[in-house]
Amino acid sequence: MGVVTLKDVAKVAGVSYATVSRALSGSPEIGESTRKRVVRICEEMGYTPNSVARSMVMKRTNIIGLIVTSIDNPFMSEMTAHLEIYARKCGYNLMVCNSSYDLNLEKEVFSLLMGRKVDGIILIPVGNESYDSLKNLTAQVPTVFIGENMLDLPENYVSVDNTNGMQQATEYLYSLGHRSILYLGAREKSMTHQLRVDGYLNACKKLGIEPNVIRNSDPRSSFRVGYALAKAHFETPFSETAILCAADTLAIGVIQAAYEKGIRIPRDLSLMGFDNISFSALPPIDLTTVNQPKQELAVAALDMLINRIKKPEASHTKTILSPSLVIRNSCRAIGD
Amino acid sequence: MGVVTLKDVAKVAGVSYATVSRALSGSPEIGESTRKRVVRICEEMGYTPNSVARSMVMKRTNIIGLIVTSIDNPFMSEMTAHLEIYARKCGYNLMVCNSSYDLNLEKEVFSLLMGRKVDGIILIPVGNESYDSLKNLTAQVPTVFIGENMLDLPENYVSVDNTNGMQQATEYLYSLGHRSILYLGAREKSMTHQLRVDGYLNACKKLGIEPNVIRNSDPRSSFRVGYALAKAHFETPFSETAILCAADTLAIGVIQAAYEKGIRIPRDLSLMGFDNISFSALPPIDLTTVNQPKQELAVAALDMLINRIKKPEASHTKTILSPSLVIRNSCRAIGD
DNA sequence: CTGAAAGCGCTAACAG
DNA sequence: CTGTTAGCGCTTTCAG
């Protein structure tokens, strides 16, 4: 183990260990010659500063806690990749926990991260109940929510404009001639999902078409759920010419159900998703969707968090980025 | 911030702070009545122990560093999910870093994690050069390699039997009547990939068929790479009836290239992968592949690491799990 | 410019 | 059974 400590270095260098500390921290109050000599000796001895000890006295760990519902969900893992890389660039490391779509577990890992004295927490929450569940805790450590809107709540968050995104999606389908569009996967306990449905409903109203929503009582938007919902729907005859899904993962599940039923996409049925996960671009999937700018979300969340770490008393801020249509080949134009 | 410390609690409880510490750590040398009273007061005051301070004195952080090439690769993110959940169950948290397929970065984050005094490191290495690059560091902190075989090297690792897996795959294709099988994606600087190709070559020899290997000079096995290699291959007429890919992600890239070329899978061409990532099960992909038991790998790696943390002087151990064929619908039987 | 010394919050001897 | 005390390795006053 790297048992070389400041003291050891100091002894060898023949200076006090405060001097070594100063040499390494780039303090101005030290002679250039001593600094160089000390730094050289540190290297020779293979000294690496002990972050734990430093954290102890600085009352700052430079660790950011990241809580995601499930790291193996493509949207989450793409976000995590961006977050980790940018965080490191900013001098932070990421401690990652899965909440596994469980409010209690979410709270538990939140506390755990607090006990670890992380400087801040980025949270992709389980759902809108997370706010109530966590509000005593979020008051105690800088926290930024990603994705789940906390619209009128005193929390920091970044997200895309979900309503606008779904509105764009609906209008796009309409522009292709679709008049009967099914919305699939509205999650009950998620403000994000509420806002997405709203976008769909708004557009329907504006365009004068009849809305039709299949809700999702599961806390997650997985392939499996999309598959199950679509399968049930396909059991009986249906008249929709397009399905708009609340998430790409759901849409991919729909593809599966459609495939089994012999329904061809886009020939027999048009399909859209939301998120633009990387798999949606693959030709066998080739899903038209609404893009969430993941890297921008990650950067915005981290900037917001770091800002708040530096000024804990600042008031809450919200950043809403614009989603954009990504047109691929899962939708076709139909005659009137 | 949770500024309540042991001292504060001790003051309120009217005991020394060592007593509070004992009450919480479940020490036997304390009266049941005092313990109860102290614990109650801790709760009332909202005291949470400071892990950093504890780490400082215990010389143990209960943090495990995880270095992956890229967390948004499906294989990695599935592994990470399993690792995080099991680690937490064992009392550890995960600090995750991407090496971004870069040996220097890999070394850099490794040092960084050491400075953080993580108790151990789990590493999905960039390639076989990682061993040399890191050997001075791995000697200083318990480390377990996942995936990349360190066959004759003094390191701890867990992996599947890659050679056997590819042998099974090749034999399966042979059993379907394939006699001209292309192996796609052998990565130069990876022992794992070397072992996989070996499995293919062994099988070819044994079965008396001519091997044919397309190598991959890129450090990663991504969709993009699979697509590019296949596209180049499809440019000119080819006689293979099956392609065996070094990874599922490569195979999915091949699907894309085949699709663009009008080559139907499995009708015109059979295709196999390796890893069994979750996407491979989706009907539009529906890839026959070789399963890596990810959860078992994660558990084995963590058990091995924890074991080594407890007995740092123990000799190196290696665990090799068995891969298994997962038959889906990307391969068809052909006549002789 | 450099050294001495205090102390971050906690655990673990060592006394009582 | 409980209190006292000495650090863990580092940063940071405060003196010199």
User: Mind telling me the C-alpha Rg of chain A?
Assistant: 25 Å
- Which second-level CATH architecture of the largest domain in chain A applies? 3-Layer(aba) Sandwich
CATH fold descriptor of the largest domain in chain A:
Rossmann fold
CATH superfamily of the largest domain in chain A: Response regulator
What is the helix/strand order of chain A? HHHHEHEHEHEEHEHEHEHEEHEE
Q: How many beta-strand segments of chain A? A: 12
Structural domain tally of chain A: 3
Biggest interface pair, residues each?
A: A-B, 53 and 53 residues
Descriptive overview:
Two copies of one chain form a homodimer. The first copy, chain A, has helices at 6-13, 17-25, 32-45, 51-58, 74-89, 103-115, 129-138, 162-175, 191-207, 223-235, 248-261, 294-310; strands at 63-68, 93-98, 120-123, 143-146, 156-160, 181-187, 213-216, 242-245, 270-272, 289-291, 318-321, 324-326. Chain A folds into three domains: 6-49, Orthogonal Bundle (434 Repressor (Amino-terminal Domain)), CATH 1.10.260.40; 59-160 and 293-321, Rossmann fold (3-Layer(aba) Sandwich), CATH 3.40.50; 162-292, Response regulator (Rossmann fold). Chain A is α/β, with parallel strands linked by helices and 336 residues long. The first copy, chain A, contains twelve helices and twelve strands. Chain A is elongated and about 85 Å long. In chain A, β1, α5 (74-89) and β2 (93-98) form a beta-alpha-beta unit. In chain A, α1 (6-13) crosses α2, α1 crosses α3 (32-45) and α8 runs parallel beside α9. In chain A, the strands form three sheets. In chain A, strands 2-1-3-4-5-11 form a six-stranded parallel beta sheet, sandwiched between helices. A four-stranded parallel beta sheet of chain A has the order 7-6-8-9, with helices on both faces. The interface between A and B is large, with 53 and 53 residues. The structure holds a DNA duplex (16 and 16 nucleotides).
